[in-house]
Amino acid sequence: MKLFTLLFFAFLGATGTTAQVNIAVETKDNALVLQTSNDSSLYITYFGARLKNTSEYREIGGQYRMTDANNSPTNNAYTPAGTWNLLEPALEIEQADGNHSVELKYVNHKVTKVNDNVILSSILLKDAVYPVSVLLNYKVYFNENIIEQWSVIKNEHAKKSIKLIKYASANLYFTSKKYFLKQYHGSWAEEMKPEEHELTSGIKTLDSKLGTRANLFQPPTFSLSFNKPANEDEGEVLLGTLAWTGNFKIDFEKDAYDHVRLIAGINPYASQYTLLSNSSFETPPFIYTYSRKGIGYASRNLHRWARNYKIPAGNGDRQILLNNWEATYFDFDEKKLVNLFKGAKELGVDLFLLDDGWFANKYPRNDDHAGLGDWQENKKKLPNGIPFLVNAAEKQGIKFGIWVEPEMINPKSELYEKHRDWVIRQPNRKEYYFRNQLVLDLTNPQVQKFVYNVLDSLMIKNPKLAFIKWDCNAVIYNAYSDYLQKNNIPQTHLYVEYVKAFYNILEKFRSKYPDVHMMLCSGGGGRVDYGAMKYFTEYWPSDNTDPYERIFIQWENSVFFPSIASCNHVTDWSKSPIKFRTDVAMMGKPGFDIVVDKLSEKDKAFAIDAVKNFKSVKDIIWHGDMYRLVNPWESNSAAVMYVDSAQRNAVVFNYLTNRRYNVNTSADPVKFKGLDPSKKYLVKEINIYPGDNPGINAAFSGDFLMNVGINTGISSSRPSVVLKISQPYTDK
Ligand code: GLA
Fold first, then answer.
1. CA of 359 to the centre of ligand 1 (A)
2. What span, in angstroms and rounded, lies between the C-alpha atoms of 620 and 594?
3. What is the pLDDT of residues 407-437, one digit of tens each?
4. Which atom of ligand 1 is found nearest the CA of 523?
């Protein structure tokens, strides 16, 4: 790739002070402006709409009060601890002599044009007293309005180590009057429950200390509206998320002047990091997009960015699958599975995914108490091994995928008997289990090798394996690593090194097997973040597949993640009609986790037709622009829409979300978005249950569809409707 780099320095003026340096980090719509002061400190002076005349950025500095009562600045670009700053720091260091101060001054900055759309601004700051430097990086994806921000902290001492106490990825500063934070909380089967509230003075923190499955109770993902809560189409809003698959901490500090300082990064909890002489620490990126046109626009930018730059094959295809988890749980054998393949074939899906329970012999994996760690096929269930199944699936014309949970171990396993030292556990305390299991110590290179080999040998033995579901069902309790201890590495490196090792394994795996589709799962959505999504084609939002619940989980995830990555399965978790379950699963990557043979004739006919329908619209849903039309939190229904880039084809899903008796929403037409008002569109209902009325099939202008809308007539007896919208190519 051709890189184009410009290097800038501050120069000394006649007065002995350095000339002011202005750095504008600009996206298509927005600008983040950084400015140096007389003493070369670096401040954030602006975050907002991009100005037409860039020379005016330098006038911004004095417009807002950005100091405390003692005139100490509150808007530092990367707030250091231990000197003048008494606010929440971005960086805290214990220097080699035990001193806890750090002070950063601007040295130079570089602007590198990575390509026509991606520009990296790197600003070098140094401490004048201690040999420490920080490189602040702002990677701009111009058209998508996305900034990835991270820092590289360097210990420039030739011989001595320093300790990083706090080492944030990003420090931002906002100057509105009011701030509304939408954060998410939840637990197993109830992920992504939003809560929106106004920030009050002081610090509001979003964090996790769970280690693995770090997002079980809270993801590192939020939206922050300025002045008033934004909605889909209006309002100023920042969507932010930390790309880190481990402990995180995001602080929002509202000061006396109603300004907010945002500091996001790895959670410093139990994570002081010793930085050896002449070495650097690179923080994970904090990813954000700012919109002045509401959440919908911000989401579409984030989706486009994720598809273009983050998620493997983000603009490619996905495989619709049949999974056996809920169909069989642990109770299966070769014959049962091969029978399920026939169902997969009948449905018309692309792949069969074998879930948990296929491995371990001494302590067979017949329930969730045993076997994790012993990744050999269970001889009783699968006498002919996985290769036999891959071939049998191929004979049915479908591909084969497999579930693994390679970071985990059951105390009831041969691996545990052999390698207790590979387990994260306190050597002198009682073991503490989460789903009867413990976490392997990935900081140990031997364990990394083991985990890598679990996957590599599956691929070597089964070169046609087309899909891997990587699960992670436990948090880290009793955080202690035998390996770190033996190698004189501080225990406080465990949480950080764990995540780095997790990425190393995936990096290695991905470089050898770039095309295998992989699902990121963590007992549901306990680990959905853009750090991991660099390696995974898709994620599992929740084990909860009840359509009434799932609509809300998918709705909230869709704010941050594109539909192509969201695995939504039709299961028997709820008693809702198959049409409703399938229609809900189709607002992403649908799959099935049912026994096809047990379906009634009508249900089966419906499902077969739905798979065909989905394949005819999947490009629109996976690669188009998403519009959230009707918010389920504000009404009895939800509606979402996907429109292709040519504005020719679209799909609308309308779902009932209220389970109360006899709900009827027919008073409200759904107004579409993203169409061309001057064009005529054919609106046709698809996914019609056998024997039901044919539904709508009529032509309307884009103008009509967006201003009047269509009344889909959903009700308790007809809780979902799917509409295919197409512009006849002959239409002018
Ligand atoms: C987790 C996953 C499920 C399933 C089970 C298997 O709970 O979220 O989808 O794979 O593990 O044990």
1. 15
2. 26
3. 999 999 999 999 999 999 999 999 999 999 9
4. 8
